[in-house]
Design a protein that fits this description.
The complex is a heterodimer of chains A (301) and B (272).
Chain A lengths: L1 E11 L2 E12 L3 E6 L5 H9 L6 E6 L2 E2 L10 E2 L13 H11 L5 H10 L13 H14 L4 E5 L7 H18 L2 E5 L3 H7 L2 E6 L2 E6 L8 E7 L6 H6 E7 L2 E6 L4 H7 L4 E7 L3 H8 L1 H14 L1
Parallel strand pairs in A: 3-8, 3-9, 6-7, 7-8
Antiparallel strand pairs in A: 1-2, 1-4, 4-5, 9-10, 11-13, 11-14, 12-13
Helix pairs in contact in A: 3-4
Chain B lengths: L1 H36 L12 H22 L2 H5 L6 H30 L5 H28 L3 H25 L7 H25 L15 H19 L8 H15 L8
Organism (chain A): Leuconostoc litchii
InterPro entries (chain A): AAA+_ATPase (IPR003593), ABC_transporter-like_ATP-bd (IPR003439), ABC_transporter-like_CS (IPR017871), P-loop_NTPase (IPR027417)
Protein name (chain A): ABC transporter ATP-binding protein
Chain lengths: 301, 272
Amino acid sequence: MSLILENISKKINHHAILNNVSFELNEGEVVGLVGRNGAGKTTLFRMLSGEVQPDFGRIGLDDRDYIKTTASHDQMFYVDMPDNWLAFYTPKRIKSILEVAYIKFDSDWYDEKLKQFNLNNNSRIQNYSKGMKALFTIIVSFASRAQYVLLDEPLDGLDVLVRDQVKQLIIDRVTKNNTTVLIASHNLIELDMLVDRILLLKDGTIDRTFAIEHNKNIKKYQLAFEGDAMPDFLRNNGTIIAQVGHIVTIVFDNFDEEIGIKLAGSDFKFIEELPISSEDIFRASFANEVSAWQQVIGGEA
Amino acid sequence: MKQAIKLYGKIKSNQIILIALLGILVACFVGGINTYYGRSITNIGSDEGLGGLLLAIMLLASGASVYTDQTRHLNTWLSTQNVSRRQIFLSKLLWMVIGPILFSNIIDFGMSLASQTHNLSKVLDSNLDDSLEGLFLVSLVVLVSIILGPIWPKVIGSIFVLIVSSSIFELGANYIVFDATNVIDNKLITCFGILILLSISYYIVGTIGVESEHEIVRIPVLKWPIVVFVFLSTFVFNINENAFNLNSFILPVVLGLITFIFVFKPKLSWQK
């Protein structure tokens, strides 16, 4: 079973939020969705879940039109947690409601996880802390036993120990139930440990789909340059992540032989290749914007 | 449809029970007062009985409860479920309108039976009139609430339509040829009106999404008709209440202008 998005476009208040977004989610996959603030991640989630209808394009569940086939809507679970009706109910009541909404709702697992994470069954969700709300959302999402679970910033507000447990819980559900999970997050370090691939949303469209190990043309280096000024080709070809004196950490979005030869030249005291992370790829994807800020900051200084 | 009724009923069960309890409490209160003071407030078992009062109170409570669906983003979530928007609309109508109307009638009829009144047929007839009238007004409010987005325009718009509706229908009745004294005709016309209003609402809910809930007027083509409606209905209301003179235009123009500003949000600037 696959969820397919084809050329999805959406305008809100005459402003294009999404433009020709296309991708596919396969069974048992954990996919990350990243993008800058306001890139349209939440709009995309709302569209996938059926809250908002696309102006153009198709969302298909295999060969069926997902939006029009309301009977298949229990295949997907998404709640927009900060603005949600669940907050006014207790977990006990929510269970009784979701048992009606989701035919395969796993009540035993739900009760077990609430107990495991010490979430009060008789307290309204609005009385929970931010972390507890996030935790509850994850529990309720997976208890629905929906094939597709959409999580918007799931690890936001969780302490390190709970975060580890939640990550384990996501992996466990995906492994046992073959659930497909789409996670929108700004925490790229956490995403690296969870996802099979990452979709990068830029300028209203999926600019890039990547898995860390498949990005041979993106490279990260730490190097020390000779002389007072940094060689120009570094700024022109890469995104500078950090600079302390003559030591620079840089990501090259399109690393090629020419850059390699320049780096091996006499301009540098030493160079060392560092392991690449999603955060580096994210920075490299927004190299122009980062460069503009750096110039502004440089000018102010 | 069954799933929509079951799901909405389950989510709202506590509030539905509270509305029913409110009805029972009002009935007990009025019954107690009547017994104590000798039918001085509301006549149980008379043709102008408790039914209408109960109906109004329960429908008001239901309306408030339905409005919270929007503030709590329940409508948004329901639109992601395996039920259609139109099925949700019908479920709401069933639980929050038809349910309270039936329940208030049952209470009134039950209390009439208990008080061993002799005019049960008149009580039934009065309840039918009240129910149809109530349902007609609710249908108007429902239509207004669907067309308008945020809660406050819904409330103000509904109150406005309820106030001016009597004048509009009076004016309409003068142009439509029917025997106003014929009670069955009146009931049939009310039923027909309810059906038309609910059909329009049913059609609209299937065509608009929850993303338009923040818009004052959710259907762009209705923006101008709404401004014109506010102007004309206020004008008709004014000349119905008072004799026609130049002052009759003041309130319609003011309300029309206010509506225009809220609907079209013109950007005003004093700088050249």
